[in-house]
């Protein structure tokens, strides 16, 4: 602000003043200065992801529950967002994006609790050498991810979980599952740390080379476990969707079915709202996926078109599958396909070509459709709003397919390599079996960690404060019994 | 006096009302109801969960007429409400003992 005022004065006063400002600018050149365009882009992407949660997800889920639980759904999503945002700044960012010492493979440390040491001049690395964005912006962008992920779980336990239990669960789950998984998949030193260490190795000789190599190894190890493996997850297929999806399944199994499940009718109360929610999710998802590129460069265009076309393909795919199998093409089917497509392209959006994105979109819907309309009913679990069937199954499919479609021979981008030519982003060696195995390992790690910890948390909460309202209250609806208000007073 | 209770398809209400007005009836009461007869219900599918919806939305129309007008009124309703498809509805006619207009105190036929 001050600088802006100064430069305006400089414009009036002429060249002498301008010259003195330029000298002042040169003094800052040593520290990387974030680009204004990148900064603006990332702030906009962050608030787009916020829009995915509220009102997007709240309306998408809200429309799918019965009238008596509409406000409960909205309140749960909205308050989870607020709660996790506070936790994120307090210690979540530190747990996800700092070095965790001895536990660094799995979780970060507490060095940046309450954002210690971060101010408006701090910067965070992107995926390009020498390009940085303000750390505050990076924190906010990642915060929106931390907020939406736990909120996704709510669809699986909808209409039957006590509000107090929801809040306790969300605080614990974010802390013990989301922050560590985000660390495992996304924490790394950045392209310059890799490049500089690799350059030092190339330039050194003799004993110094050994030392430089050790330094490079240390830099490579200063990352989460899945990142060290080389797992690819551009925007959060494992961290967000598989993570929330498996937690939803485990939660719905321990919580049990809704009162009257299978005997009473439980149709969605407003598919119009669900459509509005799905549309907001799609728009917001551009912030989610394209923002994960972390800078507004040309490559962001590829991520944008992938996010668009995979989603469209998945929507149309679900529509036709349902038309053929069930006889009618439904709006709910169409928007379910759209969400499944968004889920599937999330890990892949920065690694596949347009053809790969279309293939991914067309293929994900029949798989998720089978889970939501066949497997779920056959097994009889009450994943109320199909969080597992769409987010977990779609996420697993997307994560595995990313390992295949990243292949440059299939139009993919190839695997980024910051080491071979330090300071440049090149395409590394690719082997389908190796990459697919790595993807599967990351999927397995997420399923085991999230599923296991979620089970423990649900059982603990069940013992201490209880998970469900008494049956009468559940029948009356959580809007009145938990919140004392009604969604619609006609 | 007779009470005519007609269960009709919702989209036929305006035609029925218009026909009844044409034969000189001055008022009627309608209620949105749900029910089924031989038409049965239909099936709704939400992500593969199939719900048999037995009760379909119908309109229940109630009108009290002088005994001399019953046949004409029933005929007017049938003429408007008939599509020939299953689910057109039913008409019940029953006797009314007494009618009173609250504002004026008029009674029976004078109150209709």
What's the multimeric state?
A: heterodimer
The percent of residues in helical segments of chain A reads: 55-70%
Encode the helix/strand succession of chain A as letters. Answer: HHHHEEHHHHHHHHHHHEEHHH
The span between the termini of chain A is 50 Å
Principal-axis shape of chain A equals globular
Series of secondary-structure elements of chain B, N-terminal to C-terminal: EHEEEEHE
Shape of chain B: elongated
Widest sheet, order of strands of chain B: 2-5-1-6
Number of helices of chain B: 2
- Taking pLDDT < 50 over at least 5 consecutive residues as the criterion, the unreliable ranges of chain B are none
Report low-confidence residues of chain A grouped into runs of 5 or more.
Answer: 1-30
Describe the strand arrangement of the main beta sheet of chain A, using strand numbers. 1-2
Round the Cα radius of gyration of chain B to an integer and report it.
17 Å
Question: Which percent band covers the strand fraction of chain B?
Answer: 35-45%
Main beta sheet of chain A:
2 strands, antiparallel
Number of strands of chain A: 4
Global mean pLDDT of chain B: 93
**Helical stretch count of chain A?**
18
Task: List the chains of the largest interface with their residue counts.
Answer: A-B, 17 and 8 residues
* Radius of gyration of chain A from CA coordinates: 24 Å
Could you please describe the fold and organization of this structure?
The complex is a heterodimer of chains A (490) and B (112). With 490 residues, chain A is mainly α. Chain A is 68% helix and 2% strand. Chain A is built from 18 helices and 4 strands. Chain A has helices at residues 2-13, 15-27, 36-64, 70-97, 135-153, 163-186, 191-203, 207-221, 225-229, 237-255, 271-291, 299-326, 331-348, 354-379, 387-405, 432-464, 471-476, 478-483; strands at residues 123-125, 132-134, 416-417, 426-427. In chain A, the strands form 2 sheets. Chain A has a two-stranded antiparallel ribbon with strand order 1-2. A two-stranded antiparallel sheet of chain A has the order 3-4. In chain A, helix 6 (163-186) runs antiparallel to helix 16 (432-464), helix 10 (237-255) packs antiparallel against helix 15 (387-405) and helix 11 runs antiparallel to helix 12 (299-326). Chain A is globular. Chain B is an alpha+beta fold and 112 residues long. Helices cover 20% and strands 37% of the residues of chain B. Chain B contains 2 helices and 6 strands; from the N terminus they run βαββββαβ. In chain B, the strands form 2 sheets. A 4-stranded antiparallel beta sheet of chain B has the order 2-5-1-6, covered by helices on one side. Chain B is elongated, with a radius of gyration of 17 Å. The model of chain B has no long low-confidence stretch (mean pLDDT 93). The A-B interface holds A 265-268, 326, 328, 330, 332-333, 336, 369, 372-374, 376-377, 386 and B 44-49, 51, 53.
């Amino acid at each position: 602000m001050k600088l802006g005022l100064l430069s305006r004065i400089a414009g009036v006063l002429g060249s002498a003043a301008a010259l003195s400002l330029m000298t002042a600018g040169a003094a800052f050149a040593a520290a990387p200065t974030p680009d204004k365009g990148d900064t603006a882009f990332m702030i906009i992407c962050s608030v787009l992801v916020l829009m995915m949660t509220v009102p997007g997800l709240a309306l998408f889920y809200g429309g799918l529950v019965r009238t008596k639980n509409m406000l409960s759904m909205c309140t749960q999503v909205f308050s989870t967002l607020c709660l996790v945002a506070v936790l994120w700044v307090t210690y979540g960012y530190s747990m996800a994006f700092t070095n965790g010492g001895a536990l660094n493979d799995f979780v970060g440390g507490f060095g940046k609790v309450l954002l210690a040491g971060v101010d408006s001049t701090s910067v965070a690395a992107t995926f390009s050498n020498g390009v940085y964005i303000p750390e505050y912006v990076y924190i906010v962008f990642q915060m929106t991810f931390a907020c939406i992920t736990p909120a996704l779980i709510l669809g699986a336990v909808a209409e039957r979980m006590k509000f107090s239990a929801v809040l306790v669960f969300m605080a614990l789950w974010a802390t013990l599952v989301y922050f560590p998984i985000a660390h495992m998949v996304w924490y790394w030193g950045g392209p310059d740390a890799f490049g500089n260490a690799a350059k030092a190795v190339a330039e050194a000789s003799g004993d110094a080379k050994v030392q430089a190599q050790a330094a490079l190894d240390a830099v490579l190890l200063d990352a989460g476990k899945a990142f060290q493996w080389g797992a690819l997850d551009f925007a959060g297929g494992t961290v967000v969707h598989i993570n929330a999806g498996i937690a939803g399944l485990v939660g719905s199994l321990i919580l049990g079915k809704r009162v009257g499940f299978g005997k009473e009718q439980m149709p969605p109360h407003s598919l119009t709202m669900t459509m509005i929610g799905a549309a907001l999710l799609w728009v917001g998802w551009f912030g989610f996926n394209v923002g994960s590129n972390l800078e507004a460069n040309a490559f962001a265009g590829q991520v944008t078109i992938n996010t668009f076309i995979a989603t469209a393909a998945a929507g149309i795919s679900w529509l036709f599958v349902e038309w053929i199998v069930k006889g009618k093409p439904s709006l709910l089917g169409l928007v379910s396909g759209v969400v499944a497509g968004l889920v599937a392209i999330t890990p892949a959006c920065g690694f596949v070509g347009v053809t790969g994105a279309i293939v991914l979109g067309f293929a994900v819907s029949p798989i998720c459709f089978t889970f939501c309309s066949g497997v779920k009913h056959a097994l009889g679990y009450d994943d109320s709003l199909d969080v597992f069937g769409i987010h977990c199954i779609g996420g697993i499919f997307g994560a595995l397919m990313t390992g295949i479609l990243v292949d440059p021979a299939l139009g993919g981008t190839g695997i980024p390599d910051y080491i071979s030519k330090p300071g440049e982003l090149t395409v590394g060696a690719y082997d389908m079996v190796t990459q697919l195995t790595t993807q599967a390992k990351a999927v397995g790690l997420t399923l085991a960690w999230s599923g296991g910890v979620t089970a423990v948390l649900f059982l603990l909460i069940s013992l201490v404060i209880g998970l469900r309202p008494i049956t009468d209250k559940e029948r009356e609806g959580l809007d009145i019994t938990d919140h004392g208000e009604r969604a619609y007073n006609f | 006096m007779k009470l005519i209770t007609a269960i009709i398809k919702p989209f036929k209400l305006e035609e029925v009302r218009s026909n009844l007005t044409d034969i000189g009836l001055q008022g009627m009461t309608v209620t949105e109801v749900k029910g089924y007869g031989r038409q049965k219900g239909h099936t709704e599918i939400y992500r593969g969960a199939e719900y048999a919806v037995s009760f379909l939305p119908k309109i229940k129309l109630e009108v009290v007429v002088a005994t001399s007008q019953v046949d004409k009124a029933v005929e007017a309703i049938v003429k408007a409400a008939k599509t020939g498809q299953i689910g057109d509805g039913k008409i019940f006619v029953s006797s009314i003992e007494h009618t009173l207009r609250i504002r004026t105190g008029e009674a029976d036929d004078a109150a209709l």
